[in-house]
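Form 7-S
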Amino acid sequence: MNKGLRTGIIAGVLAFIIGIAVTLFTVYQVAPSVMMLEDESPYGFEETVERFEAEVDAAGWSILNVHDMAAIMDNHGHDVESIKIFDLCSSEYSAEILELDEERIVSPMMPCRVSIYEHSDGTTYISRMNASMMAGMFGGQIERTMDVATEESEAIIDAVLAD
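Output:
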């Protein structure tokens, strides 16, 4: 093999390895902002929580549990800003996934979780997993069901945030 060809092959392999490294680094840096969604609320913490609970009820969804993380942390000697994590369920959509053996693999992601919290400056936020992005990874019934459920849960959040 001549020297020029060998140099070209080595340069190509190195470029390929550098390309993979840059891609992995970019995914690592961007993934958290793509996987999680966060919106600032125009309301204080308590009003945002009240509006959220009312909108969930109006949409026909259920709040299965509310985890008051500030209270839980306080019980363990930690002082954190107000934060409540809500476990949401639409029995219609849950049944579409749970009644099928192959789709039950996503059950650890159920129920849907929405978090309402305050930053130290008093600003309130609502965050949740980007379920549409996750749904696309599964395809089939999981994707179809999660897409519709995501549309509805985003409509709930949009109503909470509306002035």
